[in-house]
Amino acid sequence: MATTLTHRLAGSSAASTIQVESIPVKKEEIPTSEAAAQGAAIYSKSWVIALYDWWVLGVVSSFAWACSVSHFILPFFRRNMRKGEHLDIGVGTGYYLANTDLSGVQLTLADLNEDSITASATRLENEGKVKKGQVKALLHDITRPLPASCPKYDSISMYYLLHCMPSPCVPAKTAVFSHLKHSLKEDGVLSGTTVLGKGVQHNLFGRAIMYLGNDINGMFDNRGDSAEDFEEALRDSFGEVECETKGAVFCFKASKPKV
Question: What is the pTM assigned to this prediction?
Fold first, then answer.
């Protein structure tokens, strides 16, 4: 089923309309929490989308989290993307996909925010990464199981997402792994990154960003997030797990889903 998403690019008076293949789930039926919806709503602001790559993936990741996106996270993303069906969850601006070879990839963008999906799909089309109408869109709260209409994926990515998910405890947040294992092929790969709040040393800049995100604007909920808790949850759902903490960033790769 095809649907039309319209996005007004930052700094432009013209709206960019794209056609995407939509996985059949009605927007009004998306199961989600109020807190999750509020967290996603920030990405409806055009200035956030415009500044995200430079500020979050450039300045903040390198100097607050001590983990370079261009030198570490992007290569990690590329290594763990597979040809075939790929699901990118929490799409942001589409930066990682725009800087990766997508030949042979059937791409699905999953997010709670339609603006993020549209902006990312538009970017990928404009940069010649995908053909028009090639991208599938899934408006979905990832704390819930994926719709039954979704295929099993060769790879799934969730980068800089978990620390933004509202949750009173890590086990509630890591329940996503037990959902996603059912959506991954036997030889598929799940990978991602998240900013830790526990068990790492934050520098002054990092502490300021943590305070801003957790206590002021509500974009983060990660003060209790630790590498040990995430790794334990991953091992509960997957037979092979590789983890590394780089600065304040937890990077993970999981395969062989336990189903």
Answer: 0.85
